[in-house]
Structures are given as structure tokens and as C-alpha cells.
């Protein structure tokens, strides 16, 4: 299985800050990488697919980059509703695997 | 707007079989793969497997010996059965749609519509 490792595991920031979350794959996954946001008690929500394509209807403050084994999710200016847990997921091959998550909370 | 509604028993005893169903409403059933994912309390997401309308299936190797997925195309539903449940299988179970987008001769897969989740507890 492809292992996905996110850093940091948790992050505190202020509303208005710019934050970056990193995801590393255990092998080359090209750009087969998705990002999800999960609020407490809710299902995950797709943010980014194919490493950098923003899901339709989402604000442009979210962006993704990277290829190969190293990827980043950037939130350009944090809004109160962005405080949640974020997961990366590889879709290069089954079994699809997720990172362990990055919990973003308000400082 | 496609919606996924899922249902099934939420409290099981050890050794029993989990049975969940996910209904697809307001969208195509035959154009997608359909996935199950679970999340133990306070932990991350684990992909269980996927199935399409033809019954083509991919299972996670770690659960393959205990999992069965099936589809009912007449009802636009797909189902999950997980045998020999233990406390370690306690989790929120989600169903999700797997969409693909293709460009540059590649197909990118992602889970873009999710059910609300079913909390499953295994306890004697």
C-alpha cells in the first residue's frame, strides 16, 4: 500500500493567516492526489483533486500544488469556517489511502 | 443534485455481520464507482473498497477476507457487508461517489459526494 504522511498533525492559526499543509507519499504518485476537509461530526468534503484542481463551487482561497511524492495544500486567508481537519488521499492505485489528517484550530 | 442516503444497524455484537446500504438519489448510478470508507472514533479515514454498476469491485487487502460489496441497479443502491465484527471495527461508515475526470490521457479519481455516515458500535 502507498503510505501518505501529513505534516503537521495539528496547527493553530489566526483568522486571516495563510497556512500550508504538507502531504508526502511513500512512492511516486504523479499528481493523483486529492484533499478533503472534515468538520467535526460531518462527512469529508472534497476540496482539491488531481493535486491542484479546485472542486467546483469552492472559494479560491484554497489551492493545491505538487507532484511526485510531495504535495501542499494552502489556504491563503483563513476564515472562521476553515478551522477543521484536512486529509490528503492518493488515487494513483487501490487501495486508496489517506494521510493521518491535519487538525487546524483557532489560535 | 445527487444525494447519498445510507442506513443499517448501528449496534452489533462481536462476531456479527455489519450490513449497510447506500441509496443514490437524483443522479446517474451507472457512470460511477461507489465507495465505502470508515473512520474509527478520533482517528483518520480508511478506504474499504469500491464497486460499480457492473459489479466490478476493488477491496482493501486488509479487509478483503471479511468484506462483500454488491449493487442493486434496479434500486440505485449499493451495499456493504463486513463479517466477524470486533470492537476494532467500531467506526463511522461512509458511502461516497467516486468520480473520474480525464485529461492528458489520464483519469483522475476522487470522492466528491458523501453520505452523512452511519455510526457502528461493536459491543457485547
Secondary structure elements and pairings:
The complex is a heterodimer of chains A (107) and B (124).
Chain A: E1 4-7, E2 10-13, E3 19-25, E4 33-38, E5 45-49, E6 53-54, E7 62-67, E8 70-75, E9 85-90, E10 97-98, E11 102-106
Parallel strand pairs in A: 2-11
Antiparallel strand pairs in A: 1-3, 3-8, 4-5, 4-9, 5-6, 7-8, 9-10, 9-11
Chain B: E1 3-8, E2 11-12, E3 18-25, E4 33-39, E5 46-52, E6 57-59, E7 67-72, E8 77-82, E9 91-103, E10 106-114, E11 118-122
Parallel strand pairs in B: 2-11
Antiparallel strand pairs in B: 1-3, 3-8, 4-5, 4-9, 5-6, 7-8, 9-10, 9-11
Key terms for this structure?
heterodimer, A: 107 residues, mainly beta, seven-stranded mixed beta sheet, 11 strands, globular, B: mainly beta
How would you sum up this structure, described in words?
The complex is a heterodimer of chains A (107) and B (124). By secondary structure, chain A is mainly beta. In chain A, 0% of the residues lie in helices and 50% in strands. Chain A has strands at 4-7, 10-13, 19-25, 33-38, 45-49, 53-54, 62-67, 70-75, 85-90, 97-98, 102-106. In chain A, strands 2, 4, 5, 6, 9, 10 and 11 form a seven-stranded mixed sheet that branches. A four-stranded antiparallel sheet of chain A has the order 1-3-8-7, with no helix packed on it. The mean pLDDT of chain A is 97. Chain B has 124 residues and is mainly beta. Helices cover 0% and strands 58% of the residues of chain B. Chain B has no helices and eleven strands. In chain B, the strands form two sheets. In chain B, strands 2, 4, 5, 6, 9, 10 and 11 form a seven-stranded mixed sheet that branches. In chain B, strands 1-3-8-7 form a four-stranded antiparallel sheet, with no helix packed on it. The model of chain B has no long low-confidence stretch (mean pLDDT 97). The interface between A and B is medium-sized, with 26 and 26 residues.
